[in-house]
Amino acid sequence: MTLSEQILRGVLGAFFGTVGFAMLVHTPKRAWFVSGLIASLSYMVYWLMTYLGLPDPMAIFIGSLFGSLAGLLCARLMKIIGTVFLMSAVVPVVPGLGLYRMMAALGQGQIAAGAKTGIQAMITVAMIALGLGAGAFADRVLWSRSRKHRTP
Amino acid sequence: MKQLTESAPGSSCMDTLQLAGKIIMENGGETYRAEETINRMGAGFGLEQVDSFAVPSGLFVSYRSGDGEPVTSVRRVRREGRNLTRVDEVNRVSRLVAAGKLDGREALAQLKEIECHPGSFAGMWCLPAAFLCAAGFTLLFGGSLLSIAIAGAVAAFVQLMETGLSRFRTRGLAASILGGLLTALLPLLLSMALPALETELVIAGAVMPLVPGLAMTNAVQDTMRGDMVSGISHGVQAILTAFLIAGGALLAVEIMHLLTGGAA
Predict the structure, then answer these.
(1) Cβ of A132 and B247 within 8 Å?
(2) Which of A97, B26, B162, B185 has its CA 20 to 30 A from that of B5?
(3) Is A87 within 8 Å of B213 when comparing Cβ atoms?
(4) Which of residues 1-40 of A touch B (CB under 8 A)?
(5) A69: nearest Cα among A144, A149, A140
(6) How far away is chain B from the Cα of A104, in angstroms, using its nearest Cα?
(7) Domain residue spans in chain B?
(8) pLDDT, tens only, B75-115
């Protein structure tokens, strides 16, 4: 796969996939486009970090942190609940494939391979949570004195 | 500031505050948001010593009435669905109440309307949404055009099944197992007729509409606000859902082993 194809797949795939996910949880219509945009950007940050040679967990942390900050900023500006954009930021890096591979390996009796894939998936989830948490903490510190943009 | 009178039948402050919290919690909102919204609306109504305590399965609200008597109420909450438009709408109403722009009766009337709000779309529009979600993520994972189309179709079918199950009030964990099973089994069966199908990518894409992204986000949000009970509850829900989906997929792999005699 060429570099441009990887980027195009990343941008379009994360955008449309996340818009579909946002529709499924009935997010407000005015948030759909921005949700897709945040997902595309945070996925591309993750992709860029791995492209630059960073280990996968670190890249996921940075991507989630970026998505968390961008999502909370958009939530304040658009006066939409933050959950809508935070969820969108992390959905593209959720390890669905990792969990399936773990189960497939376990199903075939490959316990060690299954456990390894499962642990990797768990690390990914932990890094996503850490990125979201760090972003939320940074957001609270940055905006704690501002009442103008406060989102209930 | 406009206040809601206790004397008006069926439209007490408590009704309004409880309904606001209930809508938030039953539609995928965080517990801290329910508490903050209740407190803010209570202050907007001019009530004194408004306090709220929300756990994932219940809601406690108290305040002092005009004659200084404490008024307390408990409400059971059942997490039924995921409708963030309703949560967002309650948020909007709470802002208006806090700003003194909305009368108590108007707030209650608007909340009752929000309770029946269908969300961003109604009916079978969830099928194209599931198709879009699965197709998009299969594209992201590097799938071919055929795999993208099949993943979308599988996800739409699973969504149809989930919608059907919801009519029998069997959504949730049972739907997660069945969803995981069908999401893995259908591509595995189709791969026997379509050798070019990238089975693993199709399953990874088709499973995306089922992933507990909302519960995971809520777990982090609640934990960050210091609400450990709700944070742990949402976290366990997310992990359990993920493992049930994966368990369903494992079942599908086992079924395929039985059908093919271990060749697949």
Answers:
(1) no
(2) B26
(3) yes
(4) 1, 9-10, 12-21, 23-29, 32
(5) A140
(6) 6
(7) 13-115, 123-260
(8) 898 877 788 999 999 999 999 998 888 878 888 999 999 98
Q: Which residues pair with B54 in a beta bridge?
A: B59
CA B49 to CA A144: how far, in whole Å?
24
Q: State the burial class of residue B115 (Cβ atoms within 10 Å of its Cβ: 0-12, 13-18, 19+).
A: middle
User: Residue A25: which of B18, B9, B75, B217 has the closest Cα?
Assistant: B217
For B128-179, the pLDDT digits (tens) are 999 999 999 999 999 999 999 999 999 999 999 888 877 776 666 778 888 9
Q: Where are the domains of chain A?
A: 3-143
Are the Cβ atoms of B216 and A17 closer than 8 angstroms? no
CB-CB under 8 Å, B249 with A21: no
Report ipTM (2 d.p.): 0.89
> What whole-number distance in Å separates Cα of residue A128 and Cα of residue A141?
20
